[in-house]
Amino acid sequence: MASSIKGGNASGTTGMHTPSVVSPQEWETAREKLLVKEKDHTRARDALAAERRRMPWMSVDREYAFEGPDGKVSLRDLFDGRRQLIVYRAFFEPGVFGWPEHACRGCSMVADQVAHVAHLNARDTTLVFVSRAPQADIARLKERMGWGIPWVTVTDGFDADFGVDEWHGTNVFYRDGDRIFRTYFINNRGDEQMGGTWNYLDITPLGRQEVWEDSPKGYPQTPTYKWWNWHDAYVPNAAPDKKWVEVSDAGEAAFRNKK
Predict the structure, then answer these.
(1) Which CATH class is domain 58-202?
(2) Distance from the CA of 247 to the CA of which of 78, 98, 143, 207 falls in 20 to 30 A?
(3) Are 138 and 153 in contact (CB under 8 A)?
(4) pLDDT tens, 245-259?
């Protein structure tokens, strides 16, 4: 039977019907029961990501120009030498609620949730935010809000061509030499989950690039956990740290045995 907690809160609610209060044993039983469904959800999410990695690609044949902190840059430049590029269209420009002090509240919440980009970079992936605000305003906003995300100014039809001229959205691109392909796109509630390293990698064509993933033949994959590092300690092409390999192996073994 549900209980009722009397009292108020900031919104003025005077009562709340809450779940039952049970013993520790009953609580653990309920948790284990729900955990079955949660594991099913995780496996379904992994399967969806595997299917996403097999989606067809769309060739991007038009040239696009952006304004960055150091001047004009192309879409190819935004990759910063990496193979994968994630582009979030943030609304910060005249006419948007909050201008000029703030970007859109929703887009700002997305920016607040972005994990350190060094972890994405270590997986050959670059994250960039784009808006129509001038660079001077973007630099001011980033400093005020404490955001370190690369952020450039849209100067042409990029936003209209990729479905983000009227609403926020996240596009994913892959670079093969000089050729660029659009591989995925999400918006609306799909953007709610963005910000974490894993969720970003799961929408890329290469995924997390760990050996447990179901990826097409020939895709890059490295041993699980071994590439992880402190965000200020990544060294390109460095072999995994021997001590971390031992620690992660022991942790994974303990986890497997517990199951």
Answers:
(1) alpha beta
(2) 207
(3) yes
(4) 999 999 888 877 765
